[in-house]
Design a protein that fits this description.
- By secondary structure, the protein is α/β, with parallel strands linked by helices.
- The protein has two domains: 191 residues, Response regulator (Rossmann fold, 3-Layer(aba) Sandwich), CATH 3.40.50.2300; 138 residues, 3-Layer(aba) Sandwich (Rossmann fold), CATH 3.40.50.2300.
- Helix content is 43%, strand content 22%.
- It is built from 13 helices and 15 strands.
- The strands form two sheets. An eight-stranded mixed β-sheet has the order 2-1-3-4-5-13-12-11, with helices on both faces. Strands 7-6-8-9-10-14-15 form a seven-stranded mixed β-sheet, sandwiched between helices.
- α3 crosses α12, α6 packs across α7 and α9 packs parallel to α10.
- The protein is globular and about 65 Å long.
């Protein structure tokens, strides 16, 4: 009889440990799958400064939150700032690296890749101000401000100062044209906006346009030119001794170009993403002063968001599951503030951070008050 009780006792203890102790085979199976995130970035060429910023942002996120990325791998491809290579990079990440989702920087790159990603039902997160790219789409999400959002912010700021009449020089690029259109659409009936001249990316003589600007008497001038172009424009304005009240795009975030522009760009304003001051301090400490932080913040926030949503992954998610999980995403006090997933009829799926008007002062960037 004692032997029977002893056997029962052993069985009960064995059952207890079986129920309360993890099965190592199951645990290994749960953590076996690693989510792969592709990054299509311009790490060389004319946009290298912004591509580097994105990479620095997600690198800092991994360093500060290592627990979030134990089951997540990042794979990066360089576009060399060329759209054809951006598309090749996307295909390489999807077919060779087998990434589950892809993050793309640069409006032109997103514009090229998005239709392909949607057709292939591949989750794509793109930095673009054009809401039409994600509008009505199931697998495309903007991870950026919109052109309309920037336009509303800038026009409200200048309206508070009594400005009404605006002129602009516009680079013939889909992004800069979207920003110009977004600003124009935000104006009221008693306010005017005139595109004075359009430029190709290779053009570098702005003197005829500067003479026109001198005679028009605008309250402020939109300098919607490309990288390398806008700094040359301001140098020519300085040489011609033509003072300007001007505003531009996030290209003004390039500290190197601002230095090249010289004193004529001092006081110029632009609308861009809000950046948390503590993040900026940590970022400069890690990567050096003078680095552009707007898109570093985007890279950081997207990485942390992905880590929070997928760090406890138990299986390989389908594309639709990935989109469903992101649709519940919320960024609380991130590098770019607090924002969440939205899906408006006129803008499509997006994570749209808050923006503010910034000013260049003494070669540095400050919030315009």
């Amino acid at each position: 009889m004692k032997q029977v009780f002893l056997i029962l006792h052993i069985l009960v203890i064995s059952l207890f440990f079986t129920l309360s102790t993890p099965v190592f085979g199951q645990e290994n199976q749960k953590s076996k799958y690693r989510l792969k995130v592709g990054w299509v970035l311009p790490l060389s060429g004319v946009w290298i400064e912004f591509g580097d910023a994105i990479r620095n942002g997600f690198t800092l996120a991994k360093e500060e939150h290592p627990n979030l990325f134990r089951n997540i791998d990042f794979v990066t491809e360089d576009t060399e700032s060329q759209n054809k290579k951006a598309l090749s990079a996307f295909h390489s990440l999807r077919q060779t690296a087998k990434v589950d989702l892809t993050f793309v920087w640069a409006h032109a790159h997103v514009q090229t890749i998005a239709p392909v990603a949607e057709k292939l039902e591949h989750p794509l997160f793109g930095v673009t101000a054009d809401g039409s790219i994600s509008k009505g789409k199931s697998f495309i999400v903007r991870f950026a401000f919109s052109a309309e959002q920037l336009g509303r912010t800038l026009s409200a700021y200048y309206r508070s100062q009594g400005f009404q009449n605006y002129g602009a020089l516009v680079w013939e690029n889909s992004f800069t044209k979207d920003i110009a259109n977004g600003f124009a659409a935000s104006l009221k009936q008693d306010e005017s906006f005139e595109i004075l001249d359009n430029f190709q990316g290779s053009e570098n003589d702005f003197k005829p346009s500067l003479l026109k600007l001198k005679s028009r008497g605008y309250d402020a001038v939109g300098v919607f030119l490309g990288p390398k172009q806008f700094s040359l424009f301001y140098r020519q304005a300085l040489a011609m001794q033509i003072p300007l009240r001007s505003f531009g795009t996030h290209y003004f975030e390039s500290r190197a170009e601002v230095v090249q522009a010289g004193s004529a760009i001092d006081g110029a304003e632009f609308a861009s993403v809000m950046i948390d001051s503590k993040f900026e301090e940590r970022y400069f400490r890690r990567f050096g002063e003078g680095k552009p932080t707007t898109f570093a913040a985007s890279g950081y926030d997207f990485a942390v968001l992905t880590g929070n949503l997928f760090s406890k992954l138990t299986h390989r998610p389908t594309a639709r599951e990935i989109m469903e999980i992101f649709s519940k995403g919320f960024i609380n006090n991130g590098a770019s503030g607090t924002y969440h997933f939205t899906n408006k009829l006129d803008e499509g799926p997006a994570f749209q951070p808050p923006v503010a008007v910034k000013r260049i002062r003494g070669g540095k960037i400050e919030i315009a008050r």
